[in-house]
């Protein structure tokens, strides 16, 4: 999340007259992230999050907003989009597509222990099962097709060793698509800063705007690569075991998923190494932007390539 488009108090006050949320009291920009403009909004009836979409087009957005509504209705702790007086989730504000959703309790836990990982592992499985009957399918927007298209764009900005790792991993992943694995809607960006914790309980999962249809195992690998890494970019066994055990208790993984696990950890690391290279070297202008260091996921990918981690349960 970030602030690319300024929204004045007056402009939002006028826009909110179409929503059943009361009178605007405060408006606060959210500085983290790199894709959309986000604000915390407080009215006399509650707290909300306003999102202005900087890249996604209006015709693309119903997938994400309806997915959140679908998951929220099934008890997944995620934002619930607010419909306007015409019953529509999506509006236009300051020339950008915009939506309003409930603000969830809690804050990101950036140093999770096994108990946090166990709590979240169960929620990830709950999210996957709840989305299994979601009727709309779109490919993961940062999936294999994006990797192949993006690698040549970032390749000139890295050194020979990084180029070799990038080329080799793209070639490797091209031969491992895992189309037979169970799949459905995935969040695809379940990092610690997209999860709100209240103590050792999950308060909410936010920022669904990289979601798409993919193998659920890919989503799980994204989680483990972020939640269960030591400062040396290697997996921490107690956290991995806690998270995967909790997930597996809700949605037991098939033998084919267990066999694919070390390769999927590589795929998840490649995806975020590429996106961070892209954000660092080919950024957009914005008021508040904090791109992440791509070297971290280069290290994680290197670890997974040279020290594969089999399914641990």
Provide a compact summary of the structure:
The protein is of the alpha+beta class.
Topology:
Elements: H1 9-15, E1 24-29, E2 37-43, E3 46-52, H2 61-73, E4 91-93, E5 96-102, H3 114-131, H4 144-154, H5 160-174, E6 183-186, E7 195-198, E8 201-205, E9 212-215, H6 216-227, H7 237-250, H8 255-281, H9 295-306
Antiparallel strand pairs: 1-2, 2-3, 3-5, 4-5, 6-9, 7-8
Helix pairs in contact: 3-6, 3-7, 4-5, 4-8, 5-8, 6-8, 8-9
Explained architecture:
- The structure is a single chain.
- The chain has 313 residues and is of the alpha+beta class.
- It folds into 2 domains: 9-102, Phosphorylase Kinase, domain 1, CATH 3.30.200; 114-306, Aminoglycoside phosphotransferase (APH), C-terminal lobe (Aminoglycoside 3'-phosphotransferase, Chain: A, domain 2), CATH 3.90.1200.10.
- Helix content is 41%, strand content 15%.
- A hairpin with a 7-residue loop joins strand 1 and strand 2 (37-43).
- The mean pLDDT is 95.
- Using only C-alpha atoms, the radius of gyration works out to 20 Å
What is the N-to-C succession of helices and strands?
A: HEEEHEEHHHEEEEHHHH
Span of the ends, CA to CA: 35 Å
Which architecture of the largest domain would the CATH scheme give at its second level? Answer: Alpha-Beta Complex
Helix content percent band:
40-55%
Query: Overall mean pLDDT score?
Result: 95
Tally of individual helices: 9
Structural class: alpha+beta
What oligomeric assembly is this protein in? single chain
Largest sheet: 5 strands, antiparallel
What percentage of the residues does DSSP assign to strands (E)?
Answer: 15-25%
Low-confidence stretches: none
Cα shape: globular
* Assigned CATH class of the largest domain: Alpha Beta
Name of the CATH homologous superfamily of the largest domain: Aminoglycoside phosphotransferase (APH), C-terminal lobe
